[in-house]
Protein: histidine kinase
Amino acid sequence: MTKRWSIARQLFALQVLVVTLLVAVGTTGAVLLARKDARNAAVEEVKAVAETIALSPAVVDGLHSSDPTAALQPWAEATRKATGTDFIVVMAPDRTRYTHPTTRLIGLPFAGNIDGALDGGTVVEEYRGSLGDSVRTVVAVFEPGTVSVIGLVSVGITTAAINRNLIAQLPVVATATGIALLLAAAGAWLLSRRLRRQTHGLGPAEMTRMYEYYDAVLHAVREGLVVVGRDGEVELINDEGRRLLGVLEEGPTDLPDEVAALISEQRPTVDEPVLVGDRTLVASRRETRFDGRLLGTVLTLRDHTELRALTGELDSVRGLTEALRAQAHEAANRLHTVLTMVELGRTDEAIELATAELALAQQLTDQVVGAVEEPALAALLLGKSAQAGERGVELTVDPSSRLEGGVEGAPLPARDLLTVVGNLVDNALEAVAGRDLPRKVEVLIRHADAEVLVRVRDNGPGLSPEQAAAAFRRGWSTKQGEGHGIGLSLVRQVAERYGGTYEISSPEDGGAVLTVRLPVPS
Structure:
C-alpha cells in the first residue's frame, strides 16, 4: 500500500510549486521589461547619435563636396565604431546613400521611411533592412541658417545586437532566480519541518479521522473532562463536564471556586471529593506532558452525589445494625438474668427488673416517635441513640422538638433532613468520643415559623473561633487522614440550596452547638 503524504510534505510540495511558478512568472516579466528597456535605450541612443551627426559641420561640408562618399564614408565608419551602432547612413534627399557599412550598397536607394525627416522631423522605427531587423532613426541635415534639407542621416542598431546585450545580462538574472528559488525552497522546508513536528507526521485523512474520534469520545465519555493550558486558561470542557459543573455552552468559562482551587494546586489528586452546587463530585488531577514538555493540566470528574447519599444511608444502617446486635447481646444477657432469677424463685424481683428495662426502652421510643413523626428521621434518631449507647454517650431528644410527618409528609424532603440531622449527630458523637464521662449529645428538631430548626449540642472540647469559621469548609476536620471533612460540608450544601443558615457557637459551660435553619418552601 502506497504511503500517503503527510500534511507537512504536501505543504512543502505545494509551496515549492507555487514559488517556482511565481519566480518563473517574475523572471519572465523581468526579461520582458529588460527587453523593453533595452529597446528604449537603443532608440534614445541612435536618436542622439543621429541628431549629433546631423549638426556636425563635417557632414554639411561633405554633402557640399564633389564626392560626398569619399568625404563622409571614412568619417561615418569611425563614428559608427566609436558609438557602438550598427550603421550610419548619410544620404541625399532622394534616398541615395553616400555612406554604408556595406560598401556595395553605397549609391543605392535607402530602404526605409524618410517622409517625416524630409519635413524637418525625426523618424523612429523598427525596420527590416539590408542588415536585418533594426531600430533606426532618420533626421534631416539643414543648410546652415536655413530650413532647407540638404541631406538625411540614419543611425540604427540591429535587433540582434540588442538581444546580444540582453543575453549578456541573463547569467545575472539566472543567478538571482536560482538564489530566490533556493531561499524559497529552504524556507518552505523549514516551515514543513516545523509543521511535521506539530502534526507528528500525520496526513489529512489521519488528522480528520483523529478529530472525528476525538470529538466522538469527548461527547460520549461519561466522565467530566476539563483541560487547562499552561497559562491557567480553560482550553476544553466536554459535555459531561459542563453538566456537572453547571457551565454554560456560550461565553467565557468560569469554573466553580472549589474546582478552580483544586486545579491551581501543584499536586496530583486522585478521587478527591469536591462539592459543586448540589453535587458531590470525585475529582482526579494530573499534569500532562509530551516529550518532557508540560502541556497543561487535565481534571476528570465523576458524579458521586447519589453514591454519597447511599453511602451515608448505608453507614447509618450499618451503625444501626451494629447497635442492634449489641442491644440483642445485652437483651440476651438480661433475659438470662431474668430467667435465672425466676428459676431461683425470685419471681417478683425478676418481673421488676424486666419491667424497668422495658419501660426505659419504651420511654426513648415514645419520646422520639412522639416528637418526630417523619418515620425515616425517627428511625435515624433511634439508630443513632443505640449507636451512642454503644459508645457510652447519652443521646437525648429535646422535649420541645416537633416535626410533622405521616400522611401529609414532612415540611422538607426526608433525604435532606437525614443528611442534616445525621451528619450533625455524627459530628457531635465524634466530638465527645474519648472524653470523660458523662458524654452527652442533645438534639432539637422543630418546625415553626416557616422554617425547620435543627440544633445539636454536645459537651465535647468545643471549637475555637477560627475552627468554627472553617468547620463547614470542604476537607476541614479535627481528625487526621483522608475521608474526613465531608459531613459538615454536605450540611452546608443543603442549607445553601434552601437559602438557610448554619453556624457553630461555643457556650460558656463548654462544648459546641451546631445550628441549622432551613426555610420551608411555600
Remarks:
- The chain has a mean pLDDT of 77.
